[in-house]
Amino acid sequence: MNFMGKDSYKRFLGRGGGSRTLGPWSVLLLLVAALLCNSQALAQTQPPPIVSEVEGGVPATPRTEKTASEQLPTLRMSGSISGTVVDLKGTAVAGARVKLAGEDQSPDQETLSGDDGQFFFGNVAPGPFHLTITSEGFAPQALTGNLRSGENCIVPQIALALATNITEVHVSLTPIELAQEQLKDQEKQRVLGFIPNFYVTYVPNAVPLSSKQKFQLAWKTTIDPVTFGINGAIAGIQWRKNDFSGYGQGAQGYAKRYGASYADLVTSTFIGGAILPSLLKQDPRYFYKGTGSKRSRAFYAIANAVICKGDNGHWQPSYSAILGSLAAGGISNLYYPASDRDGVGLTFENALIGIGASAGANLLQEFVIRKLTPNVPNYTPATP
């Protein structure tokens, strides 16, 4: 921009008449002066600052406009989360399910680890996050962190431990197997620790015995060493008193008495405790009651001389014991001396005596023998 008139400019340069020509320094000064004039002119063209309305006669502080960066809010940029899933040996775990949950309202994300064990979540909002890693055969693993705005977060290597497998095996025994277990407990029952007490159960809901188990119980009773000893004592008393005199005296008489006594035990035990109970489906054992008044327990014990539990769990007449006693008495006529065979009448008389003896034995079982029998299993009250 030219701030001098054309004529003035010529005169200043010395081109007018009578003026002296300017030297180099003069020209330089002239140029500097022209630049200064030009800058002042530009300053005069700048717009005045914006002034707010006068308040109380005093001009307010001039307002300045905000820059674009000051006018825009702070931006929260999404980021990413990645990592690797391995086992305790450092081998990559493929197909592990990785679940990402954040504290914001965005839905959870899930992904599976690749063949190299790596996983990736993109476009994740910044803030706290929670990772849950699960895989079949491994214990679950969890990890938390905080994702900053725009960050590409690589979480530490996630090592999964093998899951501790707790396998519950429910073993269901068959009725025969359960009865066998209960029978084993019965065969440990001995009065004073040595006299067999196998034909009583202290479990009122004991499982019925199979035919094989009924014969097993009879066999166990008849071959027990104590059984042989008791029969030897009985034969000795008979020999000493000269009972069944037809057998004579001496060693031969004792042996015959011993054989007859043992034969009585075997026939009555197998017929009344195994053969007939198997055919008639009855239980040959005495079911201990153990609760209630003494009167009720006494009646229960006496009644069990003529009643028994069936294999169906119901109480019924004890045909096995009664018929077994009659059968054993009838068979005994085959080996006792002829002078001691009194026919059918004695057989029935002995059967009645046997019933009374059973009632007395049951009373002892209910009130005395249990206290003298170790290894008695736990039981719950029985009801007749």
Task: Please supply descriptive tags for the structure shown above.
384 residues; alpha/beta; Immunoglobulin-like; four-stranded mixed sheet
Short structural summary:
It contains ten helices and 14 strands. It has 384 residues and is α/β, with parallel strands linked by helices.
What's the SSE blueprint?
Elements: H1 6-12, H2 24-45, H3 68-71, E1 79-87, E2 97-102, E3 109-112, E4 118-124, E5 127-134, E6 141-147, E7 152-154, E8 158-160, H4 175-186, E9 190-191, E10 195-196, E11 200-201, H5 211-222, H6 225-241, H7 250-280, E12 286-287, H8 294-303, E13 307-309, E14 315-317, H9 319-332, H10 343-367
Parallel strand pairs: 1-7, 1-8, 11-12
Antiparallel strand pairs: 1-4, 2-3, 2-5, 5-6, 9-10, 13-14
Helix pairs in contact: 5-7, 6-7, 7-9, 8-10, 9-10
Largest sheet: 4 strands, mixed
Distance between the termini: 133 Å
Shape: rod-shaped
Number of helices: 10
Structural summary, described in words:
By secondary structure, this protein is an alpha/beta fold. The protein has 2 domains: 82 residues, Immunoglobulin-like (Sandwich), CATH 2.60.40.10; 198 residues, no CATH class. Helix content is 40%, strand content 16%. It contains 10 helices and 14 strands. Strands 1, 4, 7 and 8 form a 4-stranded mixed beta sheet that branches. Strands 3-2-5-6 form a 4-stranded antiparallel beta sheet, with no helix packed on it. Helix 7 runs antiparallel to helix 9 and helix 8 runs antiparallel to helix 10. The N terminus is likely disordered.
